[in-house]
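Weekly puzzle thread! Below is a chain. First person to post its structure in token form gets bragging rights.
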Amino acid sequence: MTYDWSLLTFLIMSKLLVITYPDAAIGFSLAGIEVKEIKEGDDITSILHSIIKEGIYNLLAIEEKFLANVSDEILRRIRKKGIPVIVPIDTPRSWQV
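Winning reply:
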């Protein structure tokens, strides 16, 4: 078995940011993950611009509904650079018992 050490190093050294609803943020925070809380309907384009500019995060987990409102231009820039890697997630907007 051979390993792609560059991929393993990337995964180990990656800094993760989750962009999600306020009700879902607490769970990620309790797990020790850095979270940016966004309300439904908010535009995350400016957040993505600053993430690209700062270069701190290598991995982003973003609510699918927030990604739907991001311009194609910024998504192309991210794809071209290859970092940060974006993983779409779908969590409930609120938890009810």
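Puzzle host: Confirmed. Bonus trivia for everyone else. Residues 45-54 form the longest helix (10 residues).
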